[in-house]
Amino acid sequence: NAGVTQTPKFQVLKTGQSMTLQCAQDMNHNSMYWYRQDPGMGLRLIYYSASEGTTDKGEVPNGYNVSRLNKREFSLRLESAAPSQTSVYFCASSDLLGGEAFFGQGTRLTVV
Amino acid sequence: DAKTTQPTSMDCAEGRAANLPCNHSTISGNEYVYWYRQIHSQGPQYIIHGLKNNETNEMASLIITEDRKSSTLILPHATLRDTAVYYCIVKSGNQFYFGTGTSLTVIP
Question: A42 vs B49: CB contact, 8 Å cut-off?
Fold first, then answer.
């Protein structure tokens, strides 16, 4: 079992460029989440998906869109990257909404 | 939304018990307390969770006060590999609010 897999691990973007962060889990979990973590801070929830076909905003959704492609995959899209979106992004999944969550290893994104 | 308050940092001698406190005075009756830790910049790792009874697993023990306004995570025999940031989290609705956590340093 790979658990939660995020791609890419590192990315540098120019301001205004777009990109999609990919996340896949192989644990047959219903719920998936996207968080960002800035230096010296805890994780902040961007979006989550309680089940396939549903998505909801978290604490800091502005500037992001998500797609729950199927039960395994939950992608995060930056349409027009800004330097304020420089962060480490973590994807997570859980069996029950809010149950024990398993995290990926993160995507380190720099916007210049 | 219930939020948590934790000390910014703590030290613990290797082999001793590490007791990490957390205040969650606005917690609601059906909200669980979760603990996660994050080593270096890896993804957070689940440790334990509870509602109102004390809980124990192979990693740690969780002590929740009777009024549920605070809790303590206990690592019974801290090792150097337990050096990490520990997050006390109250699940509010469908969301986990992580806060800034406690940076635990285990000293040889």
Answer: no
Instruction: Convert the pLDDT of each residue in B23-42 to its tens digit.
Output: 999 888 888 899 999 998 89
Give pLDDT tens digits for A33-53: 999 999 877 889 999 998 899
CA angle B68, A103, A79 (to 5 degrees): 115
Residues of A engaging B, defined by a Cβ cutoff of 8 Å: 4, 33, 35, 40-45, 48, 50, 56, 58-59, 88, 90, 92, 97-98, 100-106
The one-letter amino acid code at A33 reads: Y
Cβ contacts of A45 on chain B, cutoff 8 Å: 95-97
Q: What pLDDT is attached to residue B94?
A: 67
